[in-house]
Design goal:
The complex is a heterotrimer of chains A (about 150), B (about 650) and C (about 220). Chain B is an alpha/beta fold and about 650 residues long. Helix content of chain B is about 40%, strand content about 15%. A 5-stranded mixed β-sheet of chain B has the order 12-11-15-13-14. In chain B, strands 2-1-3-4 form a 4-stranded mixed β-sheet, covered by helices on one side. A 4-stranded parallel β-sheet of chain B has the order 9-8-7-10, sandwiched between helices. Chain C folds into 2 domains: about 5-80, Roll (Ubiquitin-like (UB roll)), CATH 3.10.20; about 130-215, no CATH class. Chain C is built from 7 helices and 9 strands. Classes of the chains: A alpha+beta (about 150), B alpha/beta (about 650), C alpha+beta (about 220). At the A-B interface, helix 2, helix 4, helix 5 and strand 4 of A face helix 2, strand 11, strand 15 and helix 18 of B.
């Protein structure tokens, strides 16, 4: 990721040590993952030990330390979606893409993650792809939706 | 926007805004909360704007995109003012008709109206729809009339008048007394009296104090705060500012989970607008009181919604809970006095100031005042956000407002309080819901999630699901939570896979006791609740899993088999063709038979078998009948000629 | 700072305001078991083995003695049926990960904890955090840290820093209750030999001799 972009993001938060999580969130949003060099740079600039930056980057689900695919899939596993059958949707997507939550396929096309409640329970089961929410998912329907992405 | 320097100027501004608005001017409001956006309200909005222009109504008809209306099952929703005509489940193709028939010709489109499931009557007005009629929407009520990106909409409804009153007519002690007298209890889960917390923070030593809005709403299935913050952010800002004044704080934080991008966006816009008008910043409304607010986003950790963990996250560290032997009201962010409350708690404050303590305490029960917003989700017909006075029965919420269980299934339990709560069975449906009643029944109010479960829900799986959730979300710092949950999850997984053993229930109870008693924070301490409450009310289900290897709800994959009844099968080939594994044998006139060895229990055949045949059934706890011999599988159809 | 009068196991104890139950107990020779506590480090409250009964204002709570600040008229019981039950199970939960750890074995005998109670999942680490906290708070080098959360939480060395700082320090090694720390360091070294070479121009390594002490080459 562009060095100057990282600097820009850090400066926006006035280099404040308490902004570590906010800075990393912005970098994650721009870059879709946190390369080691970027973590090192952020920890240096914010004067935060690398061990803390590393713990933050691995503790929170929003961050990825490995490159993600072009399309990020989040399948909601909240209670309401669970009761309406989201485990079967997850099974179907796993079978279709050949990857499990936390993984990215070898062509770097799709990354799969589970998320614990997106707050759209009336639409459950919900699958979100690149910020777009797809509701009332079922095993076959999920496949249809994903086939439209390239 | 002009800077408002006094309560008098605020009223001038308000008068100005209202004078430019005509109450009777036709206005189309479209719900644009996250869920309705996901169902296409973006497209519908574009369509509406286009049609209004096309049909030459730009001067006569207003259009407003609002926050969540609450009746989420039937979104996207349109409400047309001033008549209050409510259209449900709108699609873009409905828009031209709505504009020409309803807006131009004042005719109601029947097919878009709500139909009463019992009488088949069509209901035109939003407030008469049973879902809304039985609610008392103090907090959510304004959502339908406000575009969350417009501060003027909030001002038009009387917004910031409470803040003006507080800053010009009340001392900070008086404000604190009001909130104490109101008996407002925290809406985030703990139900702790807000006034008492505010007082402790106010009296704590230290010049610098912080106030925090907890919008980390992590309970799966609960999305009240999302609708509140997305739909009416100024209500929360006003409440927070009043609280800051009462406590003596000049810096506020709003911690929003990053899974709510629209809430983050709308609250950011609201803060900027409030700053421009001078409702935030220095010398607010000429009172000499300064207050600023920063927004912090979460990064995907349920445990960081715990108050001490949240404060640690605001400091830029990993959001792990700290021991709370010294209250965070005394030592919170950077060890300074910090008052944290849930979004909904703050949202009540302006109304309590404006309408008074007597009004607020007249609603609810003796121990729990006011209303509560519940997210009613799961196996229920009218999924959505329900706001009712404390003391309303579960039966009323689930059946009168929620419309009961879909597909004629039987109610089994309602889960409240998220992963810290428990399941409440049918026997308690007439419970008057409030903080203390729910706790007595072995559950808790929590943030307000209410997940309805029916006869197809396996209660052992529910306990396993919550422990699975908690094992992923535990910070892992302390032994009883990290290891206790790990072991309980193992036992429950084994039970649901048919590997349960005698003594497992006692082992679960023993682990529950230690996890509850020794854990560092509330996540660990309450982790056993889903397990203990399901054992308390549904012990026979556990015993069936363990002793008979049977799942009474026919849910647990390893304990069920799918079987096609040869007497009912009509060899229609539907299940045969749709079976993903191709494990069903049969043909056009040959009864279908599932190869039990290869069946993956996906349930497709069960779903697709035509209801008039109903030939696929689930078996659990008993052996699957041997397949009928091949020769006997031929169906002889009666010839059509006689 | 005023003096506070409290009761521990029936004995009257005077201690300064701001002290914890553990400190007050230690001052009069009352032993409360600990695993994650160290006098040079901030109290952590992770192992919970120091859980005691604390009665105040008519209510009895189970609290971590290492963190709980003493109050006037506090009545503390360091042993009871409840407390012992908790300690026994905590030990059994930890023994599943480090069945042979000396520090655990001693306590296990006292509380009747069995290492066979839970299925073994030997990670050899009980996540007491002594190593991480010592490096952060005392040495201020931050060569070792936590990653991830929940059951996946782990302690790892940061190779670039560790290979530079640890060989000449190693002060955290004797703190490890399960002795897995040395093994982790050696593993870290082995996994990034090129880094070790790069750092000093020659490979520098730490070897653990039979008696548990290490000797640099």
């Amino acid at each position: 990721m562009d060095d100057s972009k990282v600097d820009q993001i850090i400066n926006k938060h006035q280099g404040d040590v308490s902004s570590l999580i906010q800075v990393l969130l912005e970098i994650q949003k721009e870059n879709h993952w946190l390369p080691k060099e970027v973590l090192e740079k952020v920890s240096k600039k914010l004067k935060v030990p690398l061990s803390r930056a590393q713990h933050v980057a691995t503790f929170y689900k929003a961050f990825s330390l490995v490159p993600k695919g072009r399309h990020e899939i989040h399948i909601c596993m909240g209670t309401a979606c669970h009761v309406r059958g989201s485990p079967r949707v997850l099974d179907a997507v796993q079978d279709l893409l050949g990857i499990r939550p936390g993984e990215t396929d070898s062509e770097l096309k799709f990354s799969l993650e589970t998320v614990n409640c997106l707050g759209c329970c009336a639409l459950g089961p919900v699958m979100e792809v690149d910020g777009k929410y797809h509701g009332k998912m079922a095993p076959a329907k999920a496949g249809e939706v994903l086939r439209k992405y390239d | 926007m002009p800077r408002i320097n006094s309560p008098a100027e605020l009223e001038e501004l308000r008068k100005g805004i209202l004078s430019k608005r005509d109450q009777n001017k036709p206005c189309i409001t479209l719900c644009s909360g996250t869920a309705c956006n996901a169902s296409g309200s973006g497209e519908i909005a574009a369509s509406i704007q286009e049609e209004i222009k096309k049909q030459g109504l730009s001067a006569e008809v207003d259009f407003r995109r609002t926050g969540c209306h609450g009746f989420c099952e039937r979104g996207p929703i349109i409400v047309i003012h001033p008549e209050e005509i409510c259209y449900l489940q709108i699609q873009p193709k409905d828009v031209p008709e709505i504009i020409s028939l309803t807006m131009k010709e004042k005719k109601v489109i029947e097919r878009l109206l709500y139909t009463d499931p019992n009488t088949n009557a069509k209901i035109i007005h939003e407030s008469e729809i049973p879902f809304y009629k039985n609610q008392e929407r103090l907090v959510l009520g304004s959502n339908g009339r406000i575009d969350p990106k417009s501060i003027d909409d909030y001002l038009a409804l009387g917004g910031y008048s409470a803040l003006a009153k507080v800053l010009s007519q009340m001392t900070s002690e008086q404000v604190l007394e009001e909130v104490k007298k109101s008996n407002l209890r925290g809406r985030g889960g703990g139900g702790f009296p807000a006034g008492r917390k505010w007082e402790e923070c106010r009296n704590a030593p230290g010049e610098i104090k912080y106030v925090v809005v907890n919008a980390d709403e992590g309970d799966p299935g609960a999305y009240m705060n999302r609708a509140e913050l997305e739909g009416n952010p100024h209500m929360v800002l006003e409440g927070l500012t009043i609280g800051a004044y009462a406590i003596g704080s000049h810096e506020g934080y709003i911690y929003v989970r990053q899974e709510y991008p629209l809430a983050v966006e709308n609250v950011g816009i609201a803060i900027k607008q409030a700053e421009e008008y001078g409702f935030l910043g220095e010398n607010i409304l000429g009172s000499g009181f300064d207050f600023t607010i920063k927004v912090h986003q979460g990064a995907g950790a349920f445990v960081s919604g715990e108050s001490s963990a949240l404060m640690t996250a605001i400091e830029g560290r990993v959001g792990e809970p700290r021991p709370k032997y010294i209250h965070t009201a005394i030592k919170g962010i950077w060890d300074r006095p910090t008052n944290l409350n849930n979004v909904e708690t703050w949202a009540f404050v302006p109304q309590i100031i404006n309408k008074g303590v007597d009004w607020f305490t007249s609603i609810g029960t003796a121990g729990s005042k006011g209303t509560k917003v519940f997210s009613l989700v799961g196996k229920v017909n009218n999924t959505g956000l329900v706001e009712v006075p404390m003391g309303t029965t579960l039966r009323k919420i689930i059946f009168d407002i929620g419309g009961g269980i879909p597909a004629g299934k039987k109610f089994k339990a309602v889960q409240t309080g998220g992963p810290s709560g428990g399941c409440i069975p049918e026997a308690h449906l007439d419970m008057k819901v409030d903080f203390d009643e729910l706790t007595k029944a072995g559950s808790m109010m929590g943030s307000g999630g209410m997940i309805v479960m029916d006869e197809d829900t396996c209660m052992v799986d529910v306990a396993r699901y919550f422990l699975d959730f908690l094992s992923d979300e535990s910070c892992g710092k302390c032994v009883p939570c990290r290891e206790g949950i790990r072991q309980m999850l193992k036992i429950l997984s084994n039970i649901s896979k048919g590997k349960g053993r005698d003594g497992d229930i006692e082992l679960l109870e023993g682990l529950s006791e230690v996890t509850r008693d020794a854990s560092l924070c509330a996540l660990g301490k309450s982790a056993p609740n889903p397990v203990l409450s399901t054992i308390r009310y549904f012990r026979p289900e556990y015993e069936a899993h363990i002793r008979e290897k049977r799942c009474p709800a026919y849910f647990c994959k390893e304990l069920i088999s799918y079987y096609i009844d040869p007497k009912k099968c009509q060899a229609c080939m539907i299940c045969l063709r749709q079976c993903p594994g191709g494990v069903i044998a049969g043909g056009k006139n040959q009864i279908h038979v599932i190869d039990q060895e290869k069946c993956t229990k996906c349930g497709t055949c069960f779903e697709v078998c035509p209801p008039r045949f109903g030939a696929v059934k689930k078996i659990s706890g008993e052996p699957v009948p041997s397949p009928v011999p091949e020769e006997a599988r031929i169906i002889v159809r009666e010839s059509k000629e006689k | 700072m005023s003096e506070i009068l409290l009761q521990i196991d029936g004995r009257e104890v005077k201690a300064k305001e701001g002290k914890t139950i553990l400190e007050a107990a230690q001052s009069v020779g009352i032993l409360i078991p600990t695993l994650c506590h160290h006098e040079k480090l901030e109290p952590y409250g992770a192992c919970r083995i120091c859980t005691v009964e604390a009665e105040t204002r008519g209510r009895t709570n189970l609290v971590a003695a290492c963190c709980y600040p003493i109050e006037e008229n506090l009545v503390v019981r360091t042993r009871s049926e409840k407390v012992d039950k908790i300690r026994k199970m905590l030990l059994e939960l930890m023994l599943a990960h480090a069945p042979e750890a000396g520090a655990l074995q001693d306590l296990a005998q006292e509380y009747g904890a069995s290492k066979a109670h839970f299925e073994k999942e030997p990670s050899f680490c009980i996540l007491c955090g002594l190593c991480v906290r010592y490096c952060t708070e005392v040495k201020k080098k931050n060569a070792i840290g936590f990653v991830d959360r929940g059951a996946r939480r782990e302690v790892i060395f940061i190779p670039e820093i560790a290979l530079k700082e640890c060989p000449s320090c190693r002060e955290c090694f004797p703190l490890c209750p399960t002795c897995v720390l040395q093994a982790k360091f050696v593993l870290t070294q082995a996994l990034v030999p090129t880094l070790a070479t790069k750092e000093k121009g020659k490979a520098e390594s730490v070897t653990i001799s039979d008696n548990g002490e290490d000797s640099s080459s």
